[in-house]
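Listing S7. Sequence submitted for prediction.
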Amino acid sequence: MTSEEEYTFSELMGILTNMEEKISKFYEKVAQKVEDTKLKDLFFSFSKRALQEKDSLTETRRRTVTEMTLETITGLKLSEKLAKINSVIESEEIELSKLVELEELLSELYETVSKKVAHISADVSFLLDDLSREHGKRRRSIEKTK
């Protein structure tokens, strides 16, 4: 019998907030390494947007009722998803295909989490749906540059 990962709503929001901060730093690093001006601008905009997303998550977490923050959420397989995301972020290779993969992983993560928290907070679920769509847009933007 395997043990299922459990997170409180508050822990989950903290993990997502920290992830967006990592994403921001990652894209800033990528932007500094690329030569192409269009890509540089695109990646700097991704970095800035990730900080805005981090702020939105932080504000939402702050406004959430205490009882909701203690609600347990299971079935996310979050450690597996985060390991894949971190592997791309920590890679020294900056290939567009890896960035597409990263944005796809993030979009899927936010979509999954959104569904799991919908019964706790519709506002948070809507925010996470928006973030999922945002990462999908980023993926398509990167694909267009190939």
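Caption to Listing S7: primary sequence and predicted structure tokens for the chain studied. The CA atoms of residues 8 and 71 lie 5 Å apart. Residues 37-63 form the longest helix (27 residues).
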